[in-house]
Every structure is written in structure tokens, then in C-alpha cells.
Write a structure and sequence with these properties.
With about 500 residues, the chain is an alpha/beta fold. The chain is built from 15 helices and 22 strands. The strands form four sheets. Strands 10, 11, 12, 13, 14, 15, 16, 17 and 18 form a nine-stranded antiparallel β-sheet that branches. It has a five-stranded parallel β-sheet with strand order 6-3-7-8-9. A four-stranded mixed β-sheet has the order 2-1-5-4. GO terms for molecular function: acid-amino acid ligase activity.
């Protein structure tokens, strides 16, 4: 072993060091080839086409023991397997290695967009590890398109790209194309009037689908992506983690909310801890599941929920992944898993127990009330405040558009009333948990959080907004950027 992978650190607030070997790159190549085969049955692509990939490497460093450490995606993009994948699938990324590996995500994004536009007629599909990166790239495009079309027209490169190797690589690819530039300009002026609805099919007319991880904490970004994609299908990417790949999407025609993943038994030795939801004893604060003894892959049952346990070739032994999955069926004898949530409780003050999925449902219901105000929820996170008495939940929202205080009050009340966990409801009724607090943060707050993680070595393609945080630095950013506070009136009667 010569390399360590860093997890994103956004789930538990700290990065984990995971063994990474040549086998890790080989399994990544294997699952990408396997997934491409299933996708090509439903969405056949032209041989020799291009892929608009929003992919990013982060900086590497040496540990005290002399091992190279960096994100798993960084190691993979630098591996021979990444080039082999393009040759075997006959689809080539728009951007050269210099753009992917330069370490400046803003400059990389600009170049990805520029080269994606330059090869727009050849782009067969659009992808990134997480849907967050795609959405953020198109948000940036809304502001950058005038510079981009000028670069296409003149065959130049914006002064915002100041890394010599990147400039040389990109300028070696592009050339002046006034006809394409005029077409891009006309499309963008039309799209501005449509609030950028249908951006993808308009600018990349031959794109067959958008492909990315869209489950779990990525679900809130799918709604935004749907606006950009319009009729272009969204295909959920494979199920895996920094520790190991787990399953492949064998039904790419299914929408992201219905996707299941067929376990590939050779990636790890898989065990499954049966989980039974506990509804009787509300004093069990640490978890709401009762566990049975682990069972192997061959003994799982349809409809049962499990926590995944991994033993890997790279050295992890009976490693509890913390993911809750449900067996939805079987594919040629291997189980198809539906991802439910991260097992770790993210919001708890008293005897209440709310997971990431519970929070997502609540925020979705509350944010629906914004539509009448023509406003949009950009991003969110939460915090269980136990320092004040009684403790209470704080939900932070970044909003695009103007919203009246009355509407924010309705959103806050709706979210507070939508938590169905019995421990929470009882605690709210007897006031052992205080009213939910909604804090509105100024525009760009979640970009500051992103920049904090990138500054600590995370890659943009691996970033996930923490849905709950106790990180003092993040809370400081959120609280300094808070511009409005609203308290729930639910349970006031």
C-alpha cells in the first residue's frame, strides 16, 4: 500500500483515511465499464463522442509515514485506469488532465464549461461524481456565459485563468469559431428569459442523459437540475463509498427517486445487519433500530432493512459503513438495494431521533410554500442547539428571491409540524424542546462553506453539503451570515 484516500469529511465533520491500492482503481474501472454497458442499452451513444465531465482533483500530501494521501477521485483521475475507461467505452472527456488536476476548482469549472461548449455538438452526456457539482457549474455558467462565448468566438482564454499549464493546454485545443459563438449567444439570451429552463438540451443538443449520484444528501439538488435538463433524462450513478464500491444501477431508465443498485459481490465481502425499527421505547436516544446478527449476501430478504458491513481487499475488516438500505428485489441472484439514509442520527436534543431523510422531507414541505413567492431554496443545513434551554433545532436556509416575513413564518411552522418522530412531538408538546428556529443566511453563504472544505483538501467533485453540523467553523460562518430569524408557532396552542 502506497496511498491513502480521504473521505469527504462532510458526513461526520472529519475526514477518514482509507487504504487505496491499485485494486481500488481497477474496481472503479470495472464498475464504470459495467454501468456504461447497462446505460448503452437504454441510451446508446456514438462511438468517439465526448463527455462533459465536471471532475476535479484536490491537492495531495505526504503522511508522517511517507504515504501519499488525497481524495479517492484524485487518485483515480491520475491512474492509468481513467485513460483505459475512456478507450474502452469509446467516450472521451472534453477536458485535458491539466484542467482536471490543477487544484483550483473555479478555474477548472470555467475550462470545463468552455471546452464543453467548444465540443457541444459532440457531447453525448454530462456527468460528475455528485449532482451538486453539475448544479454549481451551471449556476456559475449563468454568470460566466458572456465571457465564455467571447472566448469561443475569438479562440482566446479569459484572464481569470492564470495557471500557465492550464492556459497552454486549453489554448492548444480551442480555435476561433464565430458561428458557434453566435449560436451560443442567441441561446443564452433566450434562456435568460426562461430562467435558464432547458439549458442542457439547448446548448448540448446531442446529450442523451445527465449521469451522477442523485441519492441521499444529493436529492435536494435534483429539483434544480431538472430545470436545467428539461426533457433530458437523469440517470443515477453507481452506489459506492470511499471504502468500497457496492452496487451498479442496472435499470438506468428509472428516475432517481426509484433507483436501486445491484450488489457486485466481488468488490468486497458483504454482510448485512438486519434492522428493525423501534417504536415502543422512546428513551432509546442513540438509535431507533434493534439489530439482529449479521447475515451474508445470500441470506438477505426482500423488504428488510439492513446496515452494510464491509470486509475489503484493501484491509478493512467487518467495517460498519453506517448506510441503511432496503432490499428491493434481486437481479440474477444478487440483491438490489434501495438506499434509505445514513444511520447516524443527525438531529437529537432530548428523546427525539431524526435522520437526514427526516430532515429532507421536512425541508421539502416547508420550501414548497416558497413557490407562491417566486422564490427558491438554494441550500440548507441544520444544527441541534443544546446550549440554550430548552434545546431546539435550527435550520439554515439560503434563498434566491425576496420572501415576506409572513411566508417565512409559515415555512417555519410547517417544518416544525412536519417532524413525525414521536419523541420530538412529545418533547415539543411538553416544551422540553423549544420552537424550531429558521435562520435565513445571505447569498453566497454555502459557497463559503464549500471554500472552507476545499481549503482543507476536499475535492469539489467529492463535496456534500453537511445536512447537520456541530462544526464550530461552519456554525461561525452560518451565524455571521444570518440576516433573519423566524421562530415556529406550531404547538403554541
Amino acid at each position: 500500500m502506497t496511498t491513502l484516500s480521504l473521505s469527504s469529511g462532510t458526513t461526520e465533520g472529519r475526514q477518514k483515511y482509507i487504504p487505496f491500492t491499485r485494486h481500488s482503481s481497477q474496481t472503479t474501472l470495472q464498475i464504470f465499464r459495467l454501468a456504461a454497458a447497462y446505460r448503452s442499452r437504454v441510451y446508446p451513444t456514438r462511438e468517439g463522442g465526448r463527455i462533459l465531465e465536471f471532475i476535479y482533483s484536490s491537492r495531495k500530501f505526504k503522511t508522517k509515514g511517507g504515504l501519499t494521501a488525497g481524495t479517492a477521485t484524485t487518485h483515480y483521475y491520475a491512474s492509468p485506469e481513467f485513460k483505459i475507461k475512456q478507450e474502452k467505452t469509446k467516450s472521451f472527456t472534453c477536458s485535458p488532465e491539466e484542467v482536471i488536476s490543477n487544484g483550483d476548482s473555479k478555474q477548472s469549472t470555467y475550462c470545463h464549461l468552455l471546452l464543453g461548449l467548444f465540443f457541444s455538438e459532440q457531447v453525448e452526456f454530462i456527468t460528475s461524481a455528485f449532482v451538486y457539482s453539475i448544479v454549481q457549474s451551471f449556476i456559475a455558467f449563468e454568470e460566466l456565459w458572456k465571457e465564455l462565448y467571447i472566448d469561443i468566438r475569438d479562440g482566446t482564454l479569459s484572464k481569470r485563468i492564470n495557471l500557465p499549464k492550464v492556459r497552454k493546454a486549453v489554448l492548444g485545443i480551442i480555435s476561433p469559431n464565430p458561428i458557434l459563438a453566435s449560436k451560443i449567444e442567441a441561446c443564452c439570451r433566450e434562456l435568460e428569459g426562461l430562467d435558464w429552463f432547458g439549458l442542457i438540451p439547448k446548448l448540448w443538443p446531442n446529450a442523451k442523459y445527465v449521469y451522477s449520484i442523485m441519492t441521499g444528501s444529493m436529492q435536494p439538488y435534483v429539483k434544480k437540475l431538472l430545470r436545467y435538463a428539461a426533457e433530458v433524462p437523469l440517470v443515477s450513478a453507481e452506489y459506492g463509498s470511499t471504502e468500497s464500491w457496492i452496487g451498479v444501477n442496472v435499470d438506468p431508465c428509472l428516475p432517481p427517486e426509484d433507483v436501486t443498485f445491484a450488489v457486485v459481490p466481488t468488490f468486497s465481502y458483504f454482510e448485512f445487519i438486519p434492522l428493525h425499527r423501534q417504536k415502543q421505547d422512546y428513551n432509546l436516544v442513540m438509535d431507533d433500530f434493534i439489530e439482529d446478527k449479521p447475515v451474508p449476501l445470500s441470506q438477505v430478504k426482500v423488504g428488510q432493512e439492513y446496515e452494510i458491513v464491509l470486509t475489503t481487499i484493501t484491509g478493512l475488516y467487518r467495517y460498519r459503513l453506517g448506510d441503511v438500505v432496503e432490499v428491493a428485489g434481486f437481479h440474477n441472484g444478487t440483491p438490489k438495494l434501495n438506499f434509505i439514509c445514513r444511520r447516524k442520527l443527525i438531529l437529537t436534543v432530548n428523546i427525539d431521533k431524526n435522520t437526514e431523510k427526516d430532515l429532507q422531507i421536512v425541508v421539502e414541505r416547508g420550501s414548497q410554500l416558497l413557490s407562491n413567492s417566486k422564490a427558491e431554496l438554494i441550500d440548507f443545513t441544520s444544527h441541534a442547539d443544546v446550549l440554550t434551554q430548552p434545546g431546539h433545532y435550527i435550520i439554515y436556509w439560503e434563498i434566491k428571491g425576496e420572501v415576506e416575513e409572513r411566508v417565512l413564518g409559515e415555512c417555519c411552522r410547517e417544518m416544525d409540524a412536519s417532524f413525525v418522530d414521536h419523541g420530538y412531538v412529545v418533547s415539543r408538546r411538553n416544551n422540553s424542546i423549544g420552537p424550531l428556529e429558521l435562520r435565513i443566511v445571505e447569498k453566497g453563504t454555502f459557497k463559503k462553506i464549500l471554500e472552507h472544505f476545499l481549503g482543507n483538501g476536499s475535492a469539489l467533485s467529492q463535496f456534500k453539503t453537511p445536512r447537520c453540523t456541530s462544526n464550530k467553523v461552519l456554525l461561525s460562518i452560518l451565524n455571521l451570515c444570518t440576516i433573519k430569524r423566524v421562530y415556529s408557532t406550531a404547538y403554541a396552542d
